[in-house]
Amino acid sequence: MPLVTTEKMLLDAQAGHYAVGAFNVENMEMVMAVLQAAEEMRSPVIMQTTPSTVKYAGLDYYLAMVKTAAARTNVPVAMHLDHGDSFDLAMQALRTGYTSIMIDGSHDAFEDNIALTRRVVDACAPSRVSVEAELGKVGGKEDDLEGGDGNPFTDPQQAKEFVERTGVGSLAVAIGTAHGLYKGTPKLDFDRLSAIREVVSIPLVLHGASGVPDDAVRESITRGICKVNFATELRIAFSDGVKEYLRKDPDVFDPKKYCKVGIANVVETVKGKIAVCGSAGKV
User: Fold this and answer.
1) Which residue range forms the structural domain that includes residue 228?
2) Residue 178's pLDDT is what?
3) How many domains does the chain have?
4) What is d(CA 238, CA 248) in angstroms, rounded to the nearest whole number?
5) Cα gap 94→223, rounded to integer Å
6) CATH code of the domain covering residue 182
7) Which whole number is the average pLDDT over 212-223?
8) Is the pLDDT reported for residue 268 higher than 70?
9) Is residue 283 part of a domain?
10) Which of 139, 161, 167, 184 has the most neighbouring CB atoms within 10 Å?
């Protein structure tokens, strides 16, 4: 089926009290793996790329792969720009054919974040492409994404004002997660999440979920999270599969052989995340 936007996908998740997994894809093999997992679990799915991934191959390359994957299935698939770091990149993704766009102005001042987000929302509205924004600063580092320091948590009243003034479709909130690998077990501020949910009606997004305990992810969904982002764990799964094969057969020269193991690892990882999100069987 054709690519879909995330608007209905996330509103359905909100009404059904589950979340949709959003998985960062780095190559064709990861696209294939995410689709296979979504089909086996009968779950809607979001595939996404960060600015650094886009620089590696281009928006058109990644869109072509995901569009081809979506055409082979009746599982809803959306193509999302993760952490779009400028208006220009957001517009490039829109023109290329991405069906969901994040504009991340979280490192800007509050008013500047509002202005940038509103500009992207207005530009995407004629195409009915959903826009995600971020308020607060998700910590850690992934690719060239730097997290926030000091007190990066999302303020509920600011979140309410931000959503009202921007008209954004979904909001990524900072409640204690971080990008990349955790050094210890992350402690999420569930009370803050509940407070945000009380004053914000649109779907909420959890970034930095790789490494967050499953029970914590489930609790976040119970309290209003409708989209959960996973990146690092997929990269580790794929790389571990390739390395495992190369250890056993260091003379191999056919990439298809070791990539199959990487694909299998990613499939199992994604299936596990879909189960945690509660979206299995929702197609």
Assistant:
1) 6-277
2) 78
3) 1
4) 16
5) 31
6) 3.20.20.70
7) 96
8) yes
9) no
10) 139
| Whether residue 272 has pLDDT greater than 50 | yes
Residue 67 lies in a domain: yes
**Is pLDDT above 90 for 1?**
yes
Q: Bin 143: left if φ > 0, else alpha if -120 < ψ < 50, else beta.
A: left
Tokens found for residue 38: 């979504």
| Residue 98 CA: distances (Å) to CA of 16, 80, 128, 188 | 25, 6, 11, 31
- Ranges assigned E (strand) in the chain: 20-24, 45-49, 77-84, 100-103, 130-135, 139-142, 145-146, 170-173, 178-179, 204-206, 225-230
Q: Tell me: pLDDT of 24 over 90.
A: yes
Give the 3-state secondary structure percentages of the chain, helix then strand then coil, rounded to 5: 50, 15, 30
110 neighbors 136 (Cβ within 8 angstroms): no
State the Cα–Cα distance between residues 178 and 142, nearest whole angstrom.
9
Q: Which residues, listed in sequence order, are joined to residue 121 by a DSSP beta bridge?
A: none
Which tens digit of pLDDT belongs to each residue from 79-137? 999 999 999 999 999 999 999 999 999 999 999 999 999 999 999 999 999 999 999 86
| Residue listed under structure tokens 């094969």 | 245
For residue 40, count CB atoms less than 10 angstroms from its CB and return exposed for 0-12, middle for 13-18, buried for 19 or more: middle
Q: Express each pLDDT in 26-57 by its tens digit.
A: 999 999 999 999 999 999 999 999 999 999 99
For residue 253, the one-letter residue type is: F
Residue 253 resides in a domain: yes
Structure token pair of residue 107 = 């490192």
Residue 173 β-bridge partners: 135, 206
For all residues of the chain together, what is the average pLDDT? Answer: 93
Q: Is the separation of the CB atoms in 179 and 146 below 8 Å? A: no
List active site positions.
Answer: 82
